[in-house]
Amino acid sequence: MSTLKIFIVEDDPFYGELLKRHLSLNPDNQVYLFKTGKECLKNMQLNPDFISLDYGLPDISGLEVMKKIKLTHPHVPIVIVSGQEDVKTAIDLLKEGAYDYFTKTADTKDRLWNAVNKVREHKALHDELDELKEEVTKKYAYEKSIIGKSEAIKQVYRLIDKAVRTNITVSITGETGTGKELVAKAIHYNSPRAKKPFVAINVSAVPGELIESELFGYEKGAFTGANTRKIGKFEQADGGTLFLDEIGEMDMGMQAKLLRVLQERELTRIGGNTLIPVTARIIVATHRDLAKEVQAGNFRQDLYYRLLGLPIEIPPLRQRKGDILVLSQHFIKTFAKENKMKQKTLTKAARDKLLGYPFPGNVRELKAIIDLAMVMADGEVIDEEHIIFKTSSDITDFLLEENTLADYTKKIIRYYLNKNNGNVIKTAKQLDIGKSTIYRLLKNNEL
Amino acid sequence: MSNIKLYNLNNLKNAVGGDKKELKEMIALFVDTLSELLTEIETGIKEGDMAKVASAAHSAKSNIDMLEVKSSFIKMKEIEVLAKAKEELEKIPRLFDAVKTEMKQVIEGLKREIK
Lengths: 447, 115
What we know:
The structure holds 2 protein chains of 2 kinds. Chain A is of the alpha/beta class. In chain A, 48% of the residues lie in helices and 14% in strands. Chain A contains 20 helices and 16 strands. In chain A, the strands form 5 sheets. Chain A has a 5-stranded parallel sheet with strand order 2-1-3-4-5, with helices on both faces. The longest helix of chain A is centred in the N-terminal third of the chain and has 32 residues, at 108-139. Chain A is elongated. The relative contact order of chain A is 0.07. The mean pLDDT of chain A is 90. Chain B is elongated. By secondary structure, chain B is mostly helical. In chain B, helix 2 runs antiparallel to helix 5.
């Protein structure tokens, strides 16, 4: 448990000593006793966590002492202890920022004890929150979260570096599984907004008729079923970052409303009249080419330009093959650590198999493949047979390999030959090609 | 003299976590502080300095309350109120004499506790 520094400011020697000794019963309390307001103010550099302040001090009134403390230490809880049961004074002091007001009675020491414990719990939670925020920041240090050594990834690092220094809107493009949200989080948690909220919403996952209330919130009674006020994502991200994923899926009507909010930098909740300022930074992402969507009339041009800001394009994994093994190694290490397993090594055959695959699901798919391989491999090596591609023979995935027509032809012939147990005549008949073509390819070791 | 104690040390015992040495120290501090405050009130009454009377009575009242000496607590509270309001000042010496007599017995009892 962390030590709590407590100031007791009390001019009565007996009463002051009594409170000091009582609070010192907890060894985690470090208690200081001061007899005057001036003495207390002089020692504020010790940064107390809690102050018990007598209202009727001989030199300066408790109220004046509190006001001076609040100027330099606005968050320190101050409990005013007074011999007077004066409700008006108590209310005035609470309005001025006192944490509580106790009249001096036989149980004051116990009430102080409880107040100190409450502050300790609050401080512990606050410290924990700070630690977690620190951890999150470390987690999203971009060299640690976005893995890769390719020039393409280095360019992403450079752009993130530029994005964190300003509030510019960022538009992230990339295929599914490339890590668009990771990039958005890396920008947020490395920016001065890191301690404010990061709020993400996937536009494609929210039904069209609900997206407006999700983003802007609504007032109680705004529509049937609106039983309580709802705070929208824009407000939740106050001072932080709002990440609008799959922005390309937003319908035209909603695009117009979003544009107006981004232009005015203020919104009203559905059914409300109050204008609420928009302070969140906006980061958007899409797997679509928005410029093409604009041309096709599916996306508003004015919104496109407002959102474009700093564009960051995350290349698909197949275009940065050099990162496949770096990432594989990273996922092996992470999986082993998380599951308290020994790390495993990839055999050459396994590495070749990975390098020859187009990864239509990108980094996300690679992670799933490596996780499975770590489970399937019993020994200390991951071999070819442990690398299992789950992707179907979907034509889109097949085409993602971006081979030449000749290469595709060979692949197709090889597939049917395997299927037909090497029967050339059957394969030629099925593919409606001459059997001599297959023999020639076999002879030249091209299959 | 009655054998019934005029005071209760439970609050003090509780404040020092039952430590006997600390309890004695706190009793001694109570006796010193209260004696000084009573002298201050007495001087204030003699000099007609009601601000001094009110201030000392204010502190003494809370200390007496800590030892649960109820009748003296009530009287001390009245002294503070009257001195502060500067009303019915003629009542103050009589109230103070009663407190002084009772607290003298309390102090004697406390001194015996720490012998």
